[in-house]
Amino acid sequence: MSWRGAEKRVALVKGDGVGPEVIDATLAVLEAVGASLELVPIDIGYGRWKRTGVAMAGEDLETIRSCHCVLFGAITTPPDPDYRSVLIALRRGLDLYANIRPFSAEGIDLVIVRENTEGMYSGVEKLDEEEATTLRVITRRGSLRIAEKASQIASEREKVTIVHKSNVLKSDILFLRICQETARRWDVPFDDMLVDAAGYNLVINPGRFDVMVTTNLFGDILSDVAAGVIGGLGLCPSANLGDRYALFEPIHGSAPDIAGKGIANPVGAIRSAAMMMEWFGDLEKARMIEEAVGWTLAHGVTTPDLGGLSSTKEVSEAVAKRLLI
């Protein structure tokens, strides 16, 4: 999808916890790279829910739909049965069925392609004093869409690995078969692996993977494993893609324990903005942001989670300074 020459209207959701801090850092980098965006601030999330009893209203979703995409910080999801996840609501409301999470480090270059709208996050649940039930929903449509996206990405790389648990879960037999059929149709080399074996191999031999495609919960968990392998959650970006809309966010959570301390790692959010610029078709600005981030990390300007002494602002300032050279 290309928006060259078009108005780039971006819904800006700073969110909760460290979300505002990493988004402010990201905006400084976008300004330095010369991104031309119309930003539409939207206050949704746990903070708003505590103030008003509503995390996201219907009119908020309509405002977001009037934009091309969302730049998203982080939102707290409390263990309260009355609270509905804003992020899941956005993924469903905008039909963002593909969660793309790239991971790169020395000797590692892989992409996890995660189905984003069904599986264990179907929302079909029951909770009472004696039993709690969540329905795992795997559909042909959902499996086919994510298989197509993974095969498309793999067609420009090397191969795709289908991650599943079909030896135990009957629903994964359908998912596996559709992914295999789709990879054959795309003429993409593929293999498959049980999810527990995939988690093990991500730790001991991550270089064996190129593109991994899997269901919602498995992709959520494996992404955090991959983040740990390359150095931490704070480094990792993601894109939530649909046929019309997109949402870009770091994969880390709201981290309320460090909110306001100025030490949150902004790199995942900044790299998410680079993915946003690529989605808009501005490949040069995306490349420039990634290069500036790489230079900053290589020169030891890092936050405490990576063993550094720099603040959130100092990291973003270093990235922005590199862009202005």
From TrEMBL:
Coiled coil: none annotated. Keywords: Oxidoreductase. Residues 9-319 form the Isopropylmalate dehydrogenase-like domain. Signal peptide: none annotated. SMART domains: Iso_dh. It holds the Pfam family Iso_dh. Belongs to the isocitrate and isopropylmalate dehydrogenases family. This is Isocitrate/isopropylmalate dehydrogenase family protein. It comes from Candidatus Methanocrinis natronophilus. The lineage of its organism: Archaea, Methanobacteriati, Methanobacteriota, Stenosarchaea group, Methanomicrobia.
